[in-house]
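Researcher: I've got a protein sequence and the SMILES for zinc ion. Could you write out the 3D structure of the bound complex as structure tokens? I'd like something to compare against our soaking experiments later this week.
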Amino acid sequence: MSKDYKIKSLQEVQRENVRKNNQKKSEIKVVGYILLTVVVLLVSSIFFISLGKKQCLLKVGKNEIGYVENNNVAMDIIAKTKKQIEQESGTEIKIIEQPSIDLVKTGKKADKEEKLIKGLKDKMKYNIKAYTLIIDGKALGCLSKSDEINQVLNEIKNKYDSKKSVVDFVGNSSNLKLWFKENVEIENNYVNKDKIAKVKDMVAILSEVGANTEVYVVKEGDIMSKILEKYDSITLNDIKKMNEGFNPDKLSIGQKINISSAKLLLSVITREEKTYEEVIPKAEEIKKNEEKPTTYREVIKEGKQGKKKIKLNIIKVNGVEEGKEVISEDILVEPVTEVIEIGTKKLAERSYPGIFAMPTIGEITSRFGELRDGHTHQGIDIANDEGTSIYSVGTGKVLTVGYDAGGYGNYVKITHSNGYETLYGHLSKIMVSEGDSVTKKDKIGLMGNTGRSTGSHLHLEVIKNEKKLNPLNYVR
Ligand SMILES: [Zn+2]
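Model: Sure. Here is the predicted complex with zinc ion in place.
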């Protein structure tokens, strides 16, 4: 308290109060302003923060997949999706259309990973790494796994391969030619997943007999056999079946012929090793002997067959043998050469052997030149039952038929074109007439006992230039 306490005037007090009041008011204002500023700053900073935050929108083409926090997360999700697809399909994939990441400003929360992966799997475009089977340059189909390709090719191969061994065709494709006649290639590339075939469908395609239809247009100078030469497995019958009313002898230039060739797409070549024993025939060595007649043939040294063991590959195409490859030949038993002596001397007497046939069957009871009752026998006698058939010994003409009571009895004389004549005596019946033409073995009569004869027999004579010859040199 001040000692010189001064009594203030009312006005003074009033003024002072106003001043004090004003001072208080302004203090309140300042606090208010500060508060306001803080609020404004806070609100605006929240506003600006939220306004400045960007999100990533993952898209495949025009398809929106979802929101992710940032680029790195987006890349991670794409990579995860790729991995999942690869695990599920069991093969690598190649994304054709990369998903796009757009930066957007929204207040939305990021989507869950599962949802994003599912969306990507659904919309993302990718190719699958596959094995394409190419036969003679023609793509036949794709399989996604190498063991599937192996399975298909082994299945086809084993239809004809008794060994049924499993071949790794993919890893060992240089071996392919051993098994297939066609040029088989396996191409590893990325294809649309819709193009991936199933093992059983591929096997079915390869097992099917494909009918290739081709049209051949006839050119000038064509003949059917030449046209057929152009096609391995086509026969004239196949062509006739394919072309109604087809006449191979009437081809016209420009004519169209349907050629159908039914063949399997893959021809399986198999090599089967076989071992067997084979006989080696004995060789013959001929020694000529001029002293011995031509009918002489005598083994001087006995020969013997040999034996060998042959090992070979039998090459089959679709089960049909097409060739052999000899691997080895081992002689087990050596053959022994047989030595044979043959005669070379020709018998002059028998200059016409066998020109005539035997006139009948029976026993020769008397030969030519035998002495009988003071005269020589001019023919031969062949005895058999009465009624036995008598034939002409050769072609000719009946010269005479007659009856000679004191000699031949009923007889037939035939003249042959080579100047010979034959006579048949003692017949019981004559069955030809003079002038009849006869050929060898024509029946001319029956055996009998007529004329000067003491039992049923045929008396046969061979005559040339009126000279009687020994019939046994002429009949066989
Ligand atoms: Zn006689």
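Model: The pocket of zinc ion is lined by residues 366, 377, 379, 381, 459 (CB under 6 Å). The helical segments are 10-52, 71-89, 113-123, 146-158, 176-179, 199-207, 224-229, 236-242.
Researcher: Great, I'll pass this along to the crystallography team.
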